[in-house]
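FW: tagging you since you asked about this chain on Friday. Here's the raw sequence from the shared folder, copied in full. Didn't touch anything.
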Amino acid sequence: MYDRYDGLIFDMDGTLLDTETTHRQAWDRVLTRYGLSFDEQAMIGLNGSPTWRVAEFIIASHQADLDPFQLAAEKTAAVKTMLFDSVRALPLIEVVKAYHGRKPMAVGTGSEHAMADALLQHLHLRHYFDVIVGADDVTRHKPEPDTFLRCAALMGVDAEKCVVFEDADFGLQAAQAAGMAAVDVRLL
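HL: got it, structure written out here
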C-alpha cells in the first residue's frame, strides 16, 4: 500500500503508541499541585508539540507565574512513573511490521528522544526503526518541518519520497511543510 515511498516516518504518541490518556493524567496530577487545570480540546490542538510548549500554553491560559521548563520537567517525571505500566502499541504497528527490512523507517516525535527510545524498547519495537528524532533533537518543532526533514536525512531518503503517519494537525502541517506525503491516522 505504501510501496511507492522510499521511507516511512511515524509520529509516536497517538499514532504508534497509545499514550495520550497517560499524558493527560500526568498533566492533571502535576497541575493539581498548582491549582491549575487544562482544557481537553485545547490540549488536543497541541498534540505533537514539545512538553515545554504545552506548559507555556497552560501557564498563559491561567496567567500563572511558573517556569514552563520546570513544569514540563515535572510532567515528564510523572509520565515516566506512569507510562510503562499502561503503554501499548496501536494497530498501525502492523504497517511497521509489514515494511520492516523493506524500507527505512523512522519515528519523528514531540516526545523527548530518550523517552521514545525507552518506550519502544519496553514494547520490544525499537528494532523496527532505523532512526528516532525527538523534540530535543531539533530546535524548531511541529508544525515546522524540522523533525521530519531530520528523519529523512538520517534515513538517507529524499523528503519528497517519504510518507508521514500522524494523528495531529501540527504533525500533518509539518509533513506538508517538509514536502512529504501524509496519512492522517485518525481517518484509518
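FW: The mean pLDDT is 93.
HL: agreed, and Residues 39 and 45 are 10 Å apart (CA to CA).
FW: great, closing this out.
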